[in-house]
């Protein structure tokens, strides 16, 4: 054991990532989710994209017309 704990070599997921992801998943809309967590839509979207990059998966398919 190197004493650094879990996630060595990976970026850790922060609570805000999960909070914002949950809001978007429940609202299915970045604008409504941003109002729910009291943050502007742009940083909310950036944080969710950061979470996707940290996990190495696409969590939401972004489409300006409809959610897929």
UniProtKB/TrEMBL annotation:
Alphabetical list of InterPro entries matching this protein: LysR_HTH_N, WH-like_DNA-bd_sf, WH_DNA-bd_sf
Superkingdom in the source lineage: Bacteria
GO molecular function list: DNA binding; DNA-binding transcription factor activity
One GO term describing the cellular component: protein-DNA complex
Sequence ranges assigned to domain HTH lysR-type in this UniProt record: 13-68
Gene3D superfamilies, sorted: Winged helix-like DNA-binding domain superfamily/Winged helix DNA-binding domain (1.10.10.10)
Keyword tags: DNA-binding, Transcription, Transcription regulation
Keyword match Aminoacyl-tRNA synthetase: no
Pfam family, one: HTH_1
UniProt-listed PANTHER family: HCA OPERON TRANSCRIPTIONAL ACTIVATOR HCAR, TRANSCRIPTIONAL DUAL REGULATOR HCAR-RELATED
Family assignment from sequence similarity: Belongs to the LysR transcriptional regulatory family.
Protein name in the entry: DNA-binding transcriptional LysR family regulator
Lineage, broadest ranks: Bacteria, Pseudomonadati, Pseudomonadota, Betaproteobacteria, Burkholderiales
């Amino acid at each position: 054991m190197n004493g650094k704990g879990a996630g060595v070599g990976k970026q850790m997921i922060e609570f805000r990532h999960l909070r914002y992801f949950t809001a978007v998943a429940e609202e299915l809309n970045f604008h409504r989710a941003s109002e729910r967590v009291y943050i502007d839509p742009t940083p909310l979207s950036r944080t969710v994209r950061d979470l996707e990059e940290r996990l190495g998966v696409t969590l939401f398919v972004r489409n300006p017309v409809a959610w897929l």
